[in-house]
Amino acid sequence: MAGLRYVLAASAALIVQLGPQLALAQPKAAIEGVRDEDLRERIERAIGESDNAAQSRFEARRRAREAGEDAIAVLRSEGYYAYVVEADVADDEGDDTPPRGVVRIEPGPRFTLADPVVEWVGPPPEAAVAAAGQGAIDLEPGQAGRAPEVLAAEGRVVATIQQRGYADAQAQPREVVVDHADNTVQPTFHIAAGDLVRLNGLDIATEGRTNPRWVRRLAPWRPGERYDPDDVAELERRLLDTGVYDSVTVALQPKEKMTAEGLRPVLVSLADRPPRSIELGLGYSTDEGAGVDARWTRYNRLRRADTLQVTARLAQIEQRLEGRVILPHWRRPQRTLTLASAVFNEQTDAYDQTGLSASADLTRRYGKTSYLTYGAAIDFARTAEKVEVDNVTVTGEEFDTATFTLLGAFALDRSDDPLDPRRGWRLEARGEPTLVAGDVSLGYLRTVAQGSIYFPFGEEARTVAAGRLRLGAILGGDIPGVPAARRFYAGGGGSVRGYAYQAIGPRLPDNTPQGGLSLFEASAEIRHDLTERWGVVGFIDAGAVGTEATPTGDDYSLGAGIGVRYNLGFGPIRADIAIPLDKREGDPDFQIYLSIGQSF
User: Fold this and answer.
1) b/e for 488-505, b at 16 or more Cβ within 10 A?
2) CB 510 within 8 A of CB 497
3) Could you tell me the pTM of the whole model?
4) Which of 19, 101, 482, 596 could make a disulfide contact with 477, Cβ separation 3.0–4.6 Å?
5) What is the rounded distance in angstroms from the CA atom of residue 216 to the CA atom of residue 236?
């Protein structure tokens, strides 16, 4: 309570100090005569505020004249050209209040667009390209003659011409005829198309370790093809996707660099990041305990933007040492080969497992953020599961297995940020045909799909509503046939908060999680930014694990809680506290989670 009283007292003192300043903040001049609320708000925003009242009629009139000029700019921008604007000083005789400026406005009629046209400066482009440029204007006669829409139309014309090979196309000063007789605005766009540009190969500028021959293979065009800015941007994206460069610049060379055949090369400038890095990470939750992660990374060892990683994890329930080699654009652009091997030890409430694994995955990128992955893996493990014998839970005998898995997966990411998404959606799914051999023999198909969506709303979009749905099923298997380490579990920081790790779903007599063949998880969050750095979150999670193809009504559990976020610039630190709403024997009263990034 003492700390709370201190915070309230400090806040009150700050308000007292700022109160006089806040009270004096006022518009530079009052606006009269504008009935349209949207137009009035635009004018008021353009005029702005003053921290102090005018001290004389001269000062008030000066502010009114400045406000009138700002108002005229807004009126013309919004298509009002027959305006009458009068700057004056309010006549408050006998009043002790300071003099104040006033702007009296008669907006007049809103002018509409006449048919806009394109006129070519110098040689016009090909007929089909010229027609595409005219079509890109996309302004309908009769619509409001707003300046932003006219400027946007001009930009669309230039972009359309450039995308069809005219890289040097640019806009010259436009002509806008305002006709007061019929209240219309007719824009004429003057566009210099320049010459058609055909591309050559790459000029590569780098002092790093990358093999220029490897870079040249990534160009998405052949010499002689038309210039397309999307192709140039795609090459830059392919290089940035590797993650081994501090900076990448891809740009068309100027006309002076044109070859004798009339082709223009593209300049690629690469700045390598430091060849080695070491990363440390810490995490904590009351269900999984503390965890430490360390990663050593070597970049571009093979001179083809490759990455070598060695990762160690030391946590209460998992210890793991993994090596990984990532080869981007393997054999052809937009394909990444990942080779990995690991040794691991897991000690969970449901099972203990020690083993080693090896895998190979090939990921193909489509567009900017769509991915298709296929691969294979093999695990050799020694496992001891918790089993029920005569209504008593015991640790069963150890058994050895070799698990062969094929992988097919896709991911679509249409969100705006990987760590702190505020709008958009994500969708991913994976299927894993699995064959288990050794002391246990079984074949089954494990499938998982997840989607999430994000909606910003409120003032300046400071609030985000987020939702997540995850479904899973194991087809062709049974319990106890499917090894415990391959079953579905729910509960924990990345699942249903408020419950311990693996705590949701069927349990053995001593409350040990049994795992299941089907999974359902759903989450809803409201995230709100209090300041640029600090934010709060309220959430509710639901989850179920069933022993059949789908969970039953008795399997569902709910958790709810609140959290705080601190924005580091690249992503938030997350601290959540949650309680179980369907508490069972052995469940704690609450759980705490600390991590980096939003929960989903």
Assistant:
1) bbbbbbbbbbbbbbbbbb
2) no
3) 0.75
4) 482
5) 12
CATH 3.10.20.310 fits 112-192, yes or no: yes
Domain 276-596 of CATH type 1.20.140.10: no
Closest CA to 450 of 411, 503, 497, 496: 411
- State yes or no: pLDDT of 100 exceeds 90: no
Cβ contacts of residue 473 below 8 Å, gap of 6+?
446, 447, 517, 518, 519, 549, 550
Q: What integer is the mean pLDDT of 472-480?
A: 91
Instruction: Please list the residues that pair with 435 across neighbouring strands.
Output: 404, 443
Q: Are 600 and 464 in contact (CB under 8 A)?
A: no
CA torsion through residues 348, 351, 352, 355, sign:
negative
Task: Find, among 21, 43, 15, the residue nearest to 31 by Cα.
Answer: 43
Using left for φ > 0, alpha for ψ between -120 and 50, and beta otherwise, residue 424 falls in: left
Q: Which residues pair with 467 in a beta bridge?
A: 453, 524
Beta bridge partners of 385: 351
- pLDDT tens per residue across span 185-222: 999 999 999 999 999 999 999 888 999 999 999 999 99
Residue 594 zone, left/alpha/beta (φ > 0; ψ -120 to 50; rest): beta
Q: Name the residue with tokens 């925003």.
A: 45
Per-residue pLDDT tens over the stretch 503-562: 898 888 778 888 899 999 999 999 999 998 999 999 999 999 998 888 877 778 999 999
What would the DSSP string read from start to end of 244-271?
-EEEEEEEEPPGGG--TTSEEEEEEEEE
Helix (H, G, I), strand (E, B) or coil at 220: coil
Q: 24-106 sits in which CATH class?
A: alpha beta
The three state secondary structure string of 195-212 is CCCEEEEEEEEECCCCCH
CATH 2.40.160.50 in the chain is located at 276-596
DSSP string, 334-378: TEEEEEEEEEEEEE-SSEEEEEEEEEEEEEEEETTTEEEEEEEEE
The pairing of strands 112-113 and 276-285 is: unpaired
SS3 content of the chain, % helix, strand, coil (to 5): 20, 50, 35
As its CATH architecture, domain 198-272 has: Roll (3.10)
State the span(s) of the chain assigned CATH 3.10.20.310.
112-192, 198-272
- Give per-residue pLDDT as tens, 435-449: 999 988 899 999 999
Q: What DSSP string runs through 305-318? A: S-EEEEEEEEESSE
pLDDT tens readout for residues 321-363: 999 999 999 999 999 999 999 999 998 888 889 999 999 999 9
